[in-house]
Amino acid sequence: MNVPVVKFNRKDRPEFFIELRKRVNQHFKEKNISRHANAKMVFKTIFMLALYFTPMILMLTGVVNGLWPVIAMWVLMGFGMSGIGLSVMHDANHGAYSQNPKVNKLLGFTLNFIGGYPINWKIQHNVLHHSFTNVDGFDDDIGKTGIFRMSPTQDRKSFFRFQAFYAPIMYALMTIYWLLAKDFQQVIRYENKNLLQGQGITRGRAIAEVFFHKLWYVGLTLVLPLILVDLPWYQIVLGFLLMQGICGLVLALIFQPAHVLEETHFYKPDEKGSVENNWAIHQMKTTANFANKTVFFSWFVGGLNYQIEHHLFPNICHIHYKDISGIVKSTAKEFGVPYYEHETFFGAVKSHFTHLNQLGTGEYDRKLANA
After folding, report:
1. In the chain, where are the structural domains located?
2. Angle, CA of 360, 137 and 13, to the nearest 5°
3. Rounded to two decimals, what is the model's pTM?
């Protein structure tokens, strides 16, 4: 079984991306800088890895002890997990961190410290999400139809009326689900769609690798603390779950408000498998930026609040997104292409949950019917 390919409209203002790519290339040429990581990015990588491993070491060696100090270590590790996911492995698994594939592979491996499996992530994120953003039936990021209705093209179930309220809980459970079940399910599904083959791996080997990496991850982050930390077992488990919940919530609240919003568009291919837009314009209509003026926030979330720039140029390291965002925005305005953005993170999150509520209660459908 092969996944059908979505056909984008190549006649829909192709000159926009031709000109934009030319201008972005010129930017790097004039500045005489690499599109990949620089010294600032290396420092950030060290910081994020330290934010994860330092609290772990302090906790396991007994330098930090007692319930609340240990809980503080778990909290820091939760943010460290988030930082690795947003600022390190993301660029590496896009091939954007370095020109050297070995460096990208090594740093992409850090996804395992979040409990994920790089090959599945590359298929879900690089292949499906980036190629078919907000296209129902293709983009796995909005394909959670048993739990959420994220696109108006999806059927509405009665309990979805509560989805805006239970979404934060489900988001907090995201990495736990990732750890326990998601990767195994994806290996089977992606093998059935011949997507594993594209990554040069068989289903049997993929399942074995997933199981192996999950095993040492649980051993490192849960079993060792249970053995070495002088606290009751249930307090250790509580700390582990707190770490997972923080990471899951942070990751979800950065990625979801970039695409699943009131203003972004959602698509379902016609009977010929076609959508109405050119690929680049499709990315502009399905993606939004937020909080671009907040320096530390942008730094911590790996520049993924510049999601438009990331989707148009995923092979450029995120450390450069701010610098090229002005080029993208002005070129979009020149060609009459939308450039969606929220001034604040809160504004983007509010729009996301408003969208979930309107889709869940049917308000979106009523507005569409009355339009």
Report:
1. 15-370
2. 100
3. 0.94
